[in-house]
Amino acid sequence: MAKSGGSFKSAVELSAALSARKVSAVELMQDAIDRIERHDGKINAICVRDFDRALGAAREADAALARGERKPLLGLPVAIKESFNIAGLPTTWGFVPQKDFRPAEDALPVARIKEAGGVVLGKTNVPVGLADWQSYNDIYGTTNNPYDLGRTPGGSSGGSSAALAAGYCALAIGSDIGGSLRVPAFHCGIFAHKPTLNLCPARGETPPPLPALPREGDLAVIGPMARSAADLSLLLDIMAGPDPLDAGVAYKLDLPAARHQSLRDFRVLVIDSHPLLPTDRDVRGAIDKLATDLAKAGMTVARESALLPDFAETSRLYMRMLLGFLGAFFLPDELADSQARANRLSPGDHSLGAERLRGTVASHRAWVLDAGRRAGLRAQWRALFSSFDAVICPIMPTPAFPHDHLPEQDLRRISIDGTHYPYSDQLAWPGIATLPGLPATAVPLGLSKDGLPVGVQIVGPWLEDRTPLKLAELIEREFGGFVPPKMFDD
Fold first, then answer.
1. Annotated catalytic residue 180
2. Does residue 81 carry a catalytic annotation?
3. What CATH number did the domain enclosing 79 receive?
4. Of 156, 175, 338, 448, catalytic
5. What digits encode the pLDDT tens for the residues 66-105?
6. CA distances from 395 to 147, 182, 294, 441 (A)
7. Which of 29, 177, 310, 442 is placed for a possible disulfide with 58 were both Cys, Cβ 3.0 to 4.6 Å?
8. Which parts of the chain are coiled coil (predicted)?
9. Which residue in 7, 83, 157, 180 is the catalytic one?
10. Is residue 135 part of a domain?
11. Is 395 domain-assigned?
12. Catalytic entry in 7, 9, 81, 135
């Protein structure tokens, strides 16, 4: 099985094959190693290889299977984003001064994956500081998109998305504050899930050399990535639940079931436009086709609603709060420059760039007021989800764009149907779900006319992660999902 198409099978399928002894964990891992050694010179997704320990863990998994043991991930190859600590392996976040930092303990989500029987093959590439939709740094180089080596695989979890698209592993994990799970999933044609804020504890996904302490994210989350929607649920159930050192002292996880089990029972709002950032014809076309197909399948589909929060105000607020967080880590000279530029802003300038600048230098008082506005936004979403089960909308405005490593991101531009927009304004679409902390599942919808993946995100109600995940499964089952890159014909 591993030598004849097993590389692109789902984790659920591989788990069943392992239980039935149709394939061994060692065979799956050796197949993954062979593929990485054969193809990763071109893609550069796996930046830290841990093959010896992986083969040892695979042998242990086979022994456990022979004893009749069953665990959710037993024997399945898993790739881990470089930003997560794995004992004995470097964690750098792409920072050259940290290239030799090696934590002594696994991050909590890594420990949970191993406890569930997952076999970690290594770590996947990231941008410096996880701060880009491209995945390159001076330690590990550039990761390329398996559908077009001249384009980005997305970021910051771009190594994980490229590894999945290339068939190196069945499962991977990443993190997301500006779309870093959903954007690479979109650009590489795979599935990913941004969980509800703080559903999955992130202890150990920590900038080196800081200690791995329990913490709550203000916007950031960690989550699963896979080639099928059902695999997302499999891995989410391992990652989710309070940190035993923190909230787990008192709380246990009990996620509500999906609202519905069949397509025709769902009520969805489909959106393809944003007042501050358009989508291109490929993205709009894919969304329009999906809306039509869903309606034909008997689903209740709306294209507009007065209940939908104002996307323009949402994006402005998100830009301020995101940069209020990120700006805390700016060096003094960077912060002084940001303050000087913010002082020159016109009070009437409400461009997304201006709001990012204001957020960078905002006072704690301003942040508290914005947090109150966010609470109001969450109330709007609660009201909307009394009439709809999910909102389907874009993840990014265009399919994967060519590599652009211009050092100043403020000088980069993204072309949308021939019109150029500030590169960082692309935050607007992933921010729709990030700001209120809502769950959002990235779903591929096939390939554009240029052979590049396109897809959508399904935004669900607070803590009802199983609802967008179930809808993603149903869409995959009815209309297809992951399409392997043409460069892989073996």
1. yes
2. yes
3. 3.90.1300.10
4. 156
5. 999 999 999 999 999 999 999 999 999 999 999 999 999 9
6. 18, 7, 19, 10
7. 29
8. none
9. 180
10. yes
11. no
12. 81
